[in-house]
Amino acid sequence: MKMTTATAALIDALVRHGRLVRGTMIGLMGLSVLLDVLKPSHYSRFPWDGIPGFTAVFAFLGALLLIGVYKAIGYGLVYRRPDYYGDDDHSGDDHGASDRG
Amino acid sequence: MAMTITAAMITEPLIVGEWLHPALLLMLGALPLAVLQGRSRQLWQLILPLLVLGAVVALPAGLTVRLELAGLELVPLRVDKLSLAFAYVFALIIFIGNVFALQVNDGAQHVAAAFYAASGLGAVFAGDLITLYVFWEIMMIASVWLIWRRRRQAAYEAGFRYLIIHALGGMLLLAGIIAYWLHTGSLAFEALDGGGPAFYLILVAFLINAAAPPLHAWLPDAYPEATVTGTVFLSAFTTKTAVYVLARGFPGTELLVWLGVFMTLYGVIYAFLVNDIRRLLSYHIISQVGYMVAGVGLGSALAISGTTAHAFTHILYKALLLMGAGAVLQMTGRSRLTELGGLYRTMPLTFLLYMVGGLSISAFPLFSGFVSKTMIIEAAAVEGRGVIFLLMTLAGVGTFMSTTLKLPWYTFMGRDSGLRPPEAPLNMRIAMGIAALLCFVIGIAPGWLYAILPYPVEYEAYTAGHLIKEMQLLLFTGLGFFLLVGVLGGKDKISLDLDWFYRVPGKRALDRLGAGIRAVDAAARQAFMVRFQALEDWATHLRLSGWPLRSWPTGSMALWTAVVLALLLVFGLGR
């Protein structure tokens, strides 16, 4: 119980200091790109290996691309109401039935 | 029945304990779980997996046990580095899964889990295709009970769909084995030669269990419907046994490279689309198995070792993730993102332990996925496969976003759902803790994992270049996520997958076929009855007319007697 409370308090502190967490993350992003600029690439297997910050741009654009693709597929093709298959108990309040004898 | 037992590459004489089959030990040892109650059941649930772990560790690489049965040479136990690596992690997860399930008072579920796990062990130790087939089928029959023991209609129906797809896979495997035997005269389970019906029948059967599209929908359909503890076992054995048999039978098959990469992205996209947290994680099983399938397809020593390493780490972190999601379901009764949020206040330990799994699956440095997933991507890079490299990296972006950011954000952080469930029971937290510890230990000290891989590995995960690129990948993925976090929440919808084909038009076609058969049957019965009635009318008419009872002429009788005697003579029937 003590451990649970202490852990919750720690996470609460991080939530309260959200601005600091965000700042740290942005600082780390800058640092990771800066290091990439300063340190020549170890590899030259692909044309993009020597481009500093390539992975950062790839990840950011990739994230946006994946979000766009899933939204398009969802709304354009596969989303249906929860009772589409004639039932709506894919989740529900059943606690997983794991403690029943 | 002749029985011979030989040991290859073993210098010391065999004693029984050295080749005690761990699957047999687990199956026999599981039987008391059906009747034991309370503390004695819990105690045996802890001791038995440790005995199995001991039996696996005691098996020396190189041991081969042969058995001649009805003229067929079977190899029920073939121990080498590939099978051992899978068996080690199977044995570990049997223990962790049982710790997680200690509070479950359902003997049938424990026995089913044990038989399922034992058949997984049996399959990876199988040195011939018949033994493999037997364990393959036991695996299917045992595992469905982990779904059905949820005891609700959705689970019952999903279990049946699961059973039908796997029964189809089993039939294909058997047909493939027979074709292979007829073609080669051998039942040894080694790398299969390319081409021919046997090759493709066995490959498709293996791919069904690997949940490779378009034969994948059984997994996200059934796993989220299983019991909280059952899903943990399910995530470990079926797909990873499939990865093992693919690595054993189909290394270097180019088709698998592209199929695997497609799986990584398919799983990632669908994981975004679903609302149920255990279904989201189920789609990520497909995605992660995709890396392994692609690794098998690449086929190099680094790729096969990377596949094995990733299967090892994946079993642990995926179990951890599903234990975290299962703990949420158990404590709140809910598993939809739209109904959850803010749980960190009362379930902070579950949240933190889940995050260890999340960081591991995302290949975050210091966690297990970083030392295994990057091996497969590195294997693609070494071979100059640029497109494969980029697509796998893109899938890594999606994995981090949905498993490590979206799911925990909308479950444990974000909007406060008002739910204040207590922490999961102690045994569940301990199980998650053991899995988390292993994820971390593998991440910081991968040497011992690399030492048990099938091929020697000269791969260094912790280089400055790897670290910088991985940090860029994760941090900038996070940037993309948090910029759009407002629109990324779960939707109160379901997302159709390819199971739609057999759940809607397939079912409709079956209903129509049934109605058609019933109509033809009714018409045939009616036509028969009409003719039968006509025959009956004719017989009645004949009887009433007295024609058959009239006096027959003597000449006519003599003629028919002569005809019968002639026929007997011609056909020799009188001899």
Order of helices and strands of chain A: HHHE
| Ends distance of chain B | 46 Å
What is the count of β-strands of chain B?
Answer: 3
| Tally of alpha and pi helices of chain B | 21
Oligomer: heterodimer
Determine the N-to-C terminus distance of chain A: 28 Å
Give the strand content of chain A: under 5%
What does the radius of gyration of chain B come to? 30 Å
Largest interface: A-B, 62 and 81 residues
Spans where pLDDT lies below 50 across 5 or more residues of chain B: 1-17
Shape by Cα distribution of chain B: elongated
Count of the separate structural domains of chain B: 1
How many structurally independent domains of chain A?
1
Shape category of chain A: flat
How is this structure best described in words?
The complex is a heterodimer of chains A (101) and B (575). Chain A has three helices and one strand; from the N terminus they run αααβ. By secondary structure, chain A is mainly α. Chain A has one domain (2-82). Chain A is flat. With 575 residues, chain B is mainly alpha-helical. Chain B has helices spanning 22-30, 38-58, 81-100, 107-125, 129-148, 153-184, 196-209, 218-222, 228-249, 254-273, 277-298, 301-332, 348-361, 368-382, 386-411, 426-444, 447-451, 464-483, 500-503, 505-545, 554-571, and strands at 64-69, 72-78, 494-495. Chain B has one domain. In chain B, helix 5 packs antiparallel against helix 9, helix 9 (228-249) packs antiparallel against helix 12 (301-332) and helix 12 runs antiparallel to helix 13 (348-361). Chains A and B meet through helix 1, helix 2, helix 3 and strand 1 of A and helix 9, helix 10, helix 12, helix 13 and helix 15 of B. Strand 1 (79-80) of chain A pairs antiparallel with strand 3 of chain B, so a sheet runs across the interface.
